[in-house]
Design goal:
The termini are far apart. Helix 1 packs parallel to helix 6 and helix 2 crosses helix 3. It contains 10 helices and no strands. The chain folds into 2 domains: 55 residues, Homeodomain-like (Arc Repressor Mutant, subunit A), CATH 1.10.10; 108 residues, no CATH class.
Length: 187
Amino acid sequence: MPVRRSDRTRAAILTAARERFAVDGYAKATIRAIAAQARIHPSMVMRYYGSKEKLLAAAANFGLELPDVSHVPPTAWSEGLIRHLLEVCEQNDTMIALLRLAATQETAAERARWIIAHQIEPLIATTEPDPALAARRAAMLATQMMGLALTRYILKLPEMVTMTHDEIVAWLSPAVQHYLTGQPARG
């Protein structure tokens, strides 16, 4: 079945929007700039998405597509999750755009919270029977994973950028594993 022109136009708009939001931020990204990058008239952006905020929501609508860990014991999940995040960030700029925007735009922050609640918590819930503790583990896991993405791909700390995936896994895996299966320190 051939791809309809409207589908190609929507895809071009979303690709341009993700890039503009990632580079310029939400406030500075304009419908005109997004349309110019997509090589369409600005009215087409509004026709398909209605507003800049709705366009942001559509551009940030993606899944982490977490790896299948059913064949791996929970004590070994951390390496797979870290490697997966690195691949997602390097193959798709949507995650980076979402992180940049989540600090300043409620729509992006809501999407980030949705990803944690609907994609990460269910994974953790497969081994953590207490829903409140599964949510807490997911939140703590997010501190490490989002921190990794922020320091490597947005802030581009030289030490983080020059590390290989294997080095990052070696450094972060114990902390990530703790959030997945460990217990908090009692003081």
